[in-house]
Design brief:
By secondary structure, this protein is α+β, with helices and mostly antiparallel strands. The protein has four helices and seven strands. It has a seven-stranded antiparallel beta sheet, sandwiched between helices. A hairpin with a 7-residue loop joins strand 1 (5-14) and strand 2. The longest helix has 14 residues, at 101-114.
């Protein structure tokens, strides 16, 4: 069984109203889905009062620590030497959060220890799935 990597992080919601809006969030990585990272937010920060989960590429998170990355629903960019900004685009609008770059680096290091960069295809189980599909398993 592959280890699941969860890391609680404190994010600061970037809003138009003054003052910090610190909320808890969780970064989630599962070797069974080696290309993806998930970020979960509690219900109290969503518009409809339900928990919010975003899935995006692990590579996007890694690249966004160094340079602005992403063109779709999730975008990541450095914000000074110690912070990283993530933007989540939806039909309802854009949510922006800021988190400590050190927390993201720690999370990514744990994920790369579980599944090294470039080794993701071995964890996808494509060969096994194809063998089962064609009856060779």
């Amino acid at each position: 069984m592959d280890p699941v990597i969860d890391q609680a992080v404190q994010v600061r919601l970037i809003a138009t109203t003054p003052g910090p809006h610190a909320v808890p969030a969780v970064l989630h990585y599962q070797p069974a889905d080696p290309l993806a990272v998930r970020m979960s937010f509690p219900p109290e920060i969503s518009l409809d009062g339900s928990a919010v989960d975003w899935a995006f590429a692990r590579e996007l998170l890694d690249e966004g620590l160094r340079v602005p990355a992403g063109r779709g629903d999730v975008r990541v960019r450095p914000s000074g030497p110690d912070r990283t900004v993530m933007e989540f685009h939806a039909d309802e609008g854009v949510a922006m959060v800021q988190l400590k770059t050190a927390d993201v680096r720690q999370f990514l290091a744990r994920s790369y220890a579980a599944v090294p960069a470039g080794a993701e295809p071995a964890y996808l189980g494509l060969e096994r799935g194809l063998a089962e599909l064609f009856g060779a398993a």
